[in-house]
Design goal:
InterPro entries: Glyco_trans_2-like (IPR001173), Nucleotide-diphossugar_trans (IPR029044). By secondary structure, the protein is of the alpha/beta class. It is about 40% helix and about 20% strand. The chain is built from ten helices and 13 strands. Strand 1, helix 1 and strand 2 form a beta-alpha-beta unit. It is globular and about 55 Å long.
């Protein structure tokens, strides 16, 4: 299995420790680091099995598709993605997950997309007599994809960063492919961009709406706790979420109920940037989402 970590201005010590922990689990894991043109030298990471540095920041989609071609060239059957801020747990064993997934073929299930990150998925129901659930959503970090599948179904590069994973799993389900998530968490996500607390009126209103919906949905389950307290410090993350959500929703390439997520995007962008700047950037995100010229927007935003 080839494990790909895409980096951009990473905490080099943290990623080096990630690589060491993975190698401790099995020498069979080959690690490819693709750096999206970090502003600082990454000398420690260059000693990884494979290290590629792009001449510009082209985003996750391009890096993932490059990794898929690379994995095919070196004869790997599966490709795994990890974020640069992923915590490797002691039970990390994606080879075991793949082996068990292959056994599902006897049930008529052909495993194409898997995940070892159950905390960040939307599971639906358990696959009988197995350790897997089928999932409505699987996120990037912890995703495992068969090389022959991703070769025919590449990621949308123009999304750049956010919603790549949601579009990918939605597309798979429409094609009759069930994304599967393993019941045992093997990684944890450690946000690397810094988190902030909601403070503006729009942010508090957003939290109140979320809490109300959550309470109504889980009113019969007292063990469920509401845990949405912070947001990423980078406003570009929320700009891309809004832009990409609009782009995918009007083209029916994401779940129909994502209109609710789009409303939430607007509130959070207002919280991050304030009212006037938030309104300005929201209009830009919606405009590019509607007209669909994401490549042009990416070039302006990231100087590609």
């Amino acid at each position: 299995m080839l494990i790909t970590i895409v980096t951009y201005n990473p905490d080099e010590e943290f990623v080096t420790e990630m690589v060491s922990k993975i190698k401790e689990k099995s020498k069979d894991y080959k690690i490819l680091i693709i750096d999206n043109h970090s502003r600082k030298p990454l000398e420690k990471l260059k000693s990884t099995d494979y290290f590629i540095q792009f001449d510009k920041n082209y985003g996750l989609g391009k890096a993932y598709n490059y990794a898929a071609k690379f994995a095919k060239e070196i004869g790997e059957e599966y490709l795994m993605f990890l974020d640069q801020d992923t915590v490797i747990l002691d039970n990390f064993n994606p080879n075991k997950v793949v082996k068990e997934a292959e056994e599902l073929k006897a049930k008529g299930i052909d495993p194409q997309i898997l995940s070892i990150n159950i905390d960040n998925t939307a599971i639906e129901k358990k696959i009988s007599d197995s350790n897997f659930y089928n999932a409505k959503i699987i996120v990037n970090s912890g995703m495992i994809v068969r090389i022959d599948y991703i070769g025919k179904n590449p990621f949308l590069e123009n999304l750049f960063l956010d919603r790549l994973d949601l579009e990918y799993t939605y597309r798979a389900r429409r094609q009759g492919v069930l994304p599967l998530v393993y019941k045992e968490r093997m990684i944890l996500h450690k946000p690397g961009e810094g988190l902030r607390q909601f403070s503006r009126f729009c942010g508090k209103l957003f939290l109140t709406a979320l809490y109300t919906l959550y309470t109504l949905r889980h009113k019969n389950n007292k063990n469920k706790k509401f845990e949405y307290y912070s947001y990423y410090s980078s406003f570009l993350r929320y700009y891309l979420m809004l832009r990409n959500d609009v782009y995918l929703w009007i083209r029916r390439r994401i779940y129909p109920n994502f209109w609710k997520i789009i409303i939430g995007d607007l509130f959070v962008l207002c919280e991050v940037l304030g009212y006037s700047k938030g309104f300005k950037w929201a209009l830009r995100a919606i405009r590019y989402g509607i007209i669909g010229d994401l490549d042009k927007d990416n070039k302006e935003l990231f100087q590609i």
